[in-house]
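Posting for a labmate who doesn't have an account.
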Amino acid sequence: MKNLLLLPILFTLICCSKEDDPAPISDELLAGASSKTWIITDFKSAGVADFKDQPVCVQDDLWVFFATGEMEQNEGASKCQPSDPQVYAEGSWVLFPESNTLRLTRSTIVNFNVVTLTKNEMTLTSGSDKYYFSSL
C-alpha cells in the first residue's frame, strides 16, 4: 500500500523536473568572454514592413555586446549612405537574470524582455516589438 502512495509523488517529481525550466540567462551568453556579435534575423512590429523587405544595409546591422558592459550598434558589411559612420550607436547594457530583462542605455534607456538567450539565438521584446537575433 505504501508503494502505491509513493507512485503519485514519484510521477510528480519526474514530470515536473528542473529540466522543464528554461535555461538561465547570463552575461556570458550575451557578451561572451570578451565580446559577442549579434545580427537581427527578423523583426516584428505593428505597422512595419516585413524585415526581409528592408534594404540589405539595414538587414546586416550588428549589435556588439562587450563583457565590460558596453555595447555598440554598427552598420555591418554595408552602409545605407557611404558617409554614415560605421558605429552609429554606443552605450551600456545590464542583464537582470531574475526578471529576464536586458537594459540598454544609449541616448535613452530601453528595457527588453529576454524571451530567449542561448549560445546562438536571442529573442527580445519591447512593447509590441519583437527582435530575433543570431550570434556570429
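Reply:
Got it, the C-alpha cells are right above this. The chain has a mean pLDDT of 87.
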